Amino acid sequence: MSSKSPEKQGRPPLIELSNLVKSYGQGDAEVRALGGVSLRINAGEFVAVIGASGSGKSTCMNLIGCLDRPTSGSFRFLGVEVTTLDNNALALLRRHYLGFVFQGFNLLSRTSALENVELPLVYRRIPAKERRRRALLALQQVGLEDRVQHMPSELSGGQQQRVAIARAIVSEPSLLLADEPTGNLDSARKGEIVRLLGDFSRTRGITVVIVTHESDVARWARRIIQFEDGLVSRDEPNTPTES
Amino acid sequence: MWLATLLMALRALRRNVLRSALTTLGIVIGVASVIAMVTLGQSATASVRKSISSLGTNMLIIMPGSDRRGPVSSSATAFKMDDLHALRQELGESTSLAPTTNKSILFVYGNNNYSTTVQGSSNDFFRVRNYKVSRGREFSDTELSGGTPVCVLGETVRRKVFGAQDPLGAVARAGKLACTVIGLLEAKGQSSFGMDQDDLVIMPLAAVQRRLVGNSDINAIYLTVERESALNRTKLQVQALLRERRHIQPGQNDDFAVQDTREIANALGSVTGVLTALLGAVAGVSLLVGGIGIMNIMLVSVTERTREIGTRLAIGALANEVLLQFLVEAVLLCVLGGAIGIGLGLLGSWAAARALTMPFAVDYTIVFIAFVFSGVIGILFGYVPARRAARLNPIEALRHE
C-alpha cells in the first residue's frame, strides 16, 4: 500500500493503523468486517473514504472515531496506543480531539442552534460566557450568524448540517469525522457542505475524514481511500476538481 | 459540573413541559394526599385534645359501669345521693362535686319546640363544667332542695325556642313538666366532636329525678380539684371509697369508672393517631405508584432519546455523566412534584380544617419527610432508566431510528 507523505521528523502521524482486524460473532458465525488494515493519516489531510456498503469503511470509521475497539491490531492516535484504553479514556479522547458530523445531523431537538453548538463545550467544562462566545464564532464561520436562536425544526437540511459542523469544530478538534455528511441533502447543498469541510481542513489545519459512497463528493478530497471486502483496495492522492 | 447537569436536566424537562407535568402528577397527588391526610389527622387529634382540655384539666368524671372506653353499660347500679355525701365528706371542701342526671326531652314554648337534653344538677355544675350565667340567676337553695321546676337555658335552646322573645320569667314545658326560665347561659360554642355545648337545659337535680325520671339515680358525678397535682390522689381516694361502698371484693374489677380528662384525650388521640397512620400509609402507596409512573416515562424517554444519548456519547460525554443527567432529571421531576404536592396538600388541609372548624396544625417533620421521600423516589425509580441510558453502545445509539 502506498502512503501519501513521509513522516515528519519527531512528529507521529495523527492516525496510524497497523494490521487492524475487527470481527463480529464467534466460531463458525464469525464475520470479519476488517481484515487487517494498515493506514496512516497525517495532520491536516482531507481524506475521502469510499466503498460499497459492507466494504468495512464504516467499521473502520467507528474505530478511528474511538467509538469501538478492534479485535486485534494496533491503532495509534497521535502516537498513543488507543486499543488498550478503557471506555472513559476513549470518551475523553473524543471530547478533546474529535469532532463528528453525521448523516442524520443528530442535533438535539427543541434546542436552539446556539445551545446545540455549545454542547461539546459543556462537557469540556468551559464557563458559560466563553462557551457562548466560541459557539457564536463557530456559527458565524458556517454562515449561520442570523440563525443562532432557531430550533433545528426551523432550519433546512443544509442549515442543520452546518449547525452540526459548527458543533464539530467549536472544540477545535484534531480530527473531524464526517459519516455520509451529504446523504440526506440535495445535490445543490452537497457541494456547499463538502466545500465547507475542505475550507476548515485547509485554513485551520483540521484533519477531515469523510466517509461517503458518492463519488462526486469524494472528488473534492485531496486523498481518496477505497475499501473493498474489509481491506483497502485503493489509496491515492486526488486533485480537487470544481464541477 | 453539578450546576451544568442541573441546567441540562431543566432544559430537557422544559423541552416537553406537558409530558413533564403529567409525569410528575402522580408524585404531586401522592405527596399532596400524604400531607393532607397527616395534617388533617393531626388537626383532628389536636382539636380533640383541645376540646377535652376545655372541660378543664383538673376534672374527674365518675360514671357507673365497668372501666372500659366507649359506652357505659346501663345495667350497672347508678349512684345515689348517699354516695355523693360520702364523697364530699371524704374529699373535703376543696373539691367541687356536681352530680348529674340527664334525660332527653322536648322543650316547648308557644308554637316552638326543640329536642334537647335536660341536665339535673346543683349550682356546682356551673363551676365544674365552666358555664356562666349571663342573664338571670343560678338556683336558690330552696329550689334545689325542693325540686322546684325552674330552668337555665343554653344559648342554642334559647335561640331555637324563643328567638327574639325574652325568655326570662317565661313558663315553658320540658317534656311534660312546666318550668319557669330563671337564667340564660353564656354561649360556649361548638366542641370539635361536632357536639354543641350550648344545647342543654339545666334544672335542679331533685326536679329531674322526681318529676322527669321518676327515681333517685345519679348518672354521673363531675368533680374538680383545686390543684391539678392533687388529681391522681383524689382519683385513688374516689376509687377506694366507691369500691368499699359498692362492696367490691379485692381482685374484682370496678363496676364504675373514674376518668380524668387527660385520659380521655389520650384515648381519643390514639384513635385518631391510628387513623392518621392508616390514611398516611394509603397515601404513601399512591406516592409509590407515582414513582412507578416516573420510571415508566423515563424509560420511554431514554428509548426516544437514544440518538441524543448516542450523540452525547460521541461528543465525549462519559457514561457516568449520562447516568447523572437522567438521574438528575428524574429527581428534579420528583422534587418539583413533591414541592407542588406539599403546597397543594397544605392548602387543601388548611381549607378542610377551616371548613370543619378545626385548628390547623402543620407538622413540619412530615413536610420535610415527604419532600425528602419524593427525592428518594426519584433516585430509586430514576436509576434503572438512567443506567439503561448510560450503558447504551454509542454506535448502536447513533444508528437508532
Descriptive overview:
The complex is a heterodimer of chains A (243) and B (401). With 243 residues, chain A is of the alpha/beta class. Chain A has one domain: 3-Layer(aba) Sandwich (Rossmann fold), CATH 3.40.50.300. Chain A is built from seven helices and ten strands. Chain A has helices spanning 57-64, 87-97, 113-123, 128-141, 157-169, 187-204, 215-218; strands at residues 15-24, 31-41, 46-50, 72-77, 80-81, 98-101, 175-179, 207-211, 223-228, 231-237. In chain A, the strands form two sheets. In chain A, strands 6-7-8-3-9-10 form a six-stranded mixed beta sheet, with helices on both faces. Chain A has a four-stranded antiparallel beta sheet with strand order 2-1-4-5, with helices on one face. Chain A starts with 14 loop residues before the first strand and ends in a 6-residue tail after the last strand. In chain B, 57% of the residues lie in helices and 16% in strands. The longest helix of chain B has 44 residues, at 261-304. Chain B has helices at residues 2-14, 17-53, 81-91, 124-128, 141-146, 155-162, 205-213, 231-245, 261-304, 306-315, 319-355, 364-390, 394-399, and strands at 59-64, 96-109, 112-121, 133-136, 150-153, 171-174, 177-185, 201-204, 220-224, 256-260. Chain B starts with a helix and ends with a helix. Chain B contains 13 helices and ten strands. Classes of the chains: A alpha/beta (243), B alpha+beta (401).
